[in-house]
Amino acid sequence: MxxxxxxxxxxxxxxxxxxxxxxxxxxxxxxDWMRVHSPATAAMYPVEAMRExxxxxxxxxxxxxxxxxxxxxxxxxxxxxxxxxxxxxxEPAYEAFYAARNQVEFYPDALDALRRIAARVPVAAxxxxxxxxxxxxxxxxFAFQLGSREFGAAKPDPGIFHAACxxxxxxxxxxxxxxxHAEMDVAGAMRxxxxxxxxxxxxxxxxxxxxxxxxxxxxxxxLADWLDDNASLxxxxxxxTA
Length: 242
Description:
Blueprint: E1 7-10, H1 20-37, H2 39-44, H3 47-60, H4 68-82, H5 90-101, H6 110-120, E2 123-127, H7 133-136, E3 144-147, H8 148-151, H9 158-168, E4 175-179, H10 182-191, E5 195-199, E6 215-217, H11 220-229
Parallel strand pairs: 1-2, 1-4, 2-3, 4-5, 5-6
Helix pairs in contact: 1-3, 1-5, 3-4, 4-5, 6-11
């Protein structure tokens, strides 16, 4: 399929890097940090107990699902309070979490493909997560980063896609949203009037009730190749603030 793409909005977690190993490392880093700075908290909340507290906090606060940083702080607050620790530890504990959260390992294809894509069209990060592109070291490849926390609503809310298109200055139907999640990325973006590209690394069948994606690839390289083959514009010089 060939259609004009003047800009791209791009998901981050499980599109550029797998999140599962990050999540496992976060759990261990936080536990090790607590063992040093608040042994009582570490004793009351070993890794599995802290994970259960985090899941419960998420389930109990659906109004904050767009703000994963706030949910993490709530989790840490409860753990510190119930273990009798000083609340002065909250922000240092959060910083220990956040440093680990931004230690990512890209999919083998992703970084080179991202550079190729960003050289072709403007790219904006649109994510429900709380990754920091500047900390990760790829901020210069993006026109901007729009997170659900900053916007106030999470994908697949159409508003976050429309806000990204407005900042890009490109009509909805000329923006391609790229991501791994069938509903939050592909179906959500297409309902909002954008084109949808599914990065389907696991070769899953499309079982969503919504129409299938405009494009589907098993790596980000596939999209970079498609853009090169269907280019109608001169290369774009990436740059901006993340």
